[in-house]
Amino acid sequence: MKRFLPFVVLFLVFSCWPPGMDPDRKAGKFLSEVVNLEEFNSEHDDYNSTLPLNRHGEAYLVFSSKRDRKDVFNLTYFPAYLKYDKRLELKKGKERPGLSYYEIYDEAPQLINKANGNFNVYGPRLISLQRDFVNYGTADDLFLFYADDSSGKMDIKCARRGTAAPEAVKYLNSKANDAYPAFSWTGDRIYFCSDRDGNFDIYEVKIPRTETERISIESLLDPPSYELRKVEELSGPYNDKCPYILHDMMVFVSDRPGGSGGRRHLLFRI
To answer: What's the rounded Cα separation, in Å, for the pair 136 and 140?
Structure first.
């Protein structure tokens, strides 16, 4: 039985301001110990959680779990909030239900239901056009990026609100396994992992953008031009997966020597 939902989500109690623009930003600190999120875990395998940014203690948690279908991983979603008592805790539910933060994320269950099926679903990433990008003046919308193995291998897909079925993000996918997309604040870079060259490596997509360009879902799913490369600075004989971007830092998982249980988290400045 695996329990892979540690309190890592609390690393990201940071501002939702763009880098360098927060007037009262203070340096955060890692917790001194890993805490099991018992309220969210189940007796089945739970892992692969998304890591939301938050400013006011409200959050959400999306992760892969076998609690529903038992034989495959599907996505599970919970609204959550930070509780400050004798110790910092992440609790299920909405502490302030009327908060505008939840308006767009209330659409998340619809997207997750679209993604789930009789196959494994991994690496969920909910994307808000207003909260996840420097995107002033753009109407908000919510999308779910993830990977599933319905084709026999992992492919990156996107689910939108409405009646349309999820669609494959073709320019990110290959004949191999591709998964775990992560996005920069300015929407000009996407990172993901792939084993198209043998072992899993981190890949980077650069999308040219002007300073005043508004980021749309179309420009992420089918950009008119882009550059794709393997991040050779990180590549080696090991498996590197699950990139996550916070400002100019990337966190990823690797089986390089030195990790506990065969895996370790590494930081890389981008």
So the answer is: 10
Residues of the chain with pLDDT under 50: 1, 3-25
Alpha-carbon 170 to chain mean position: 19
Look at residue 171 and tell me if it is in a domain: yes
What are the backbone dihedrals phi and psi of residue 102, each rounded to the nearest 5 degrees, phi first? -80, -15
Residue 54 located in a structural domain? yes
- Residue range 166-198, pLDDT digits in tens: 999 999 999 999 999 999 999 999 999 999 999
DSSP 171: T
Residue 220: burial class (beta carbons within 10 Å; 0-12, 13-18, 19+): buried
Question: Which CATH number belongs to the domain containing residue 85 in this structure?
Answer: 2.115.10
- 246 in any annotated domain: yes
Phi-psi region of 140 (alpha: psi -120 to 50; beta: other; left: phi over 0): beta
Give the pLDDT of residue 201: 95
In total, how many domains does the chain have?
1
Domain membership of residue 32 as a residue range: 7-269
Three-state DSSP class for residue 62: strand
User: Is residue 71 one of the residues assigned to a domain?
Assistant: yes
The CA distance from 22 to 236, in Å, is 37
